[in-house]
Here is the input.
Amino acid sequence: MALGLGCSARPGKAQENRTGSWRTFRPEFMHDRCTKCGMCSQVCPEGCIGENDEGFPVPDYDYCKGCGLCVEECPSQAIEMKKEEK
Ligand code: SF4
Ligand code: SF4
Here is the structure.
């Protein structure tokens, strides 16, 4: 069978391809420091940060790829990356 040129993986964001199984670090949100500014959910490339009933950010770990962008952009240091425990 001849292989076609280019990438063999299907295109799509992690929103369509669950990433939780290969993540090494996960973001932990500390709501006591959070000002609900919404920056983390705006910068998340997977769009996987939602809100709880009180308006605090809550990540969907099934789709978070552990990139750490939310940690970098949080102005209140309310998110920390923690080593994933398998
Ligand atoms: S670590 Fe990356 S993918 Fe996960 S919630 Fe933060 S910005 Fe989104
Ligand atoms: S960026 Fe930080 S302070 Fe702003 S909503 Fe997210 S966790 Fe809270």
Remarks:
- The helical segments are 39-43, 69-73.
- The longest helix spans residues 39-43.
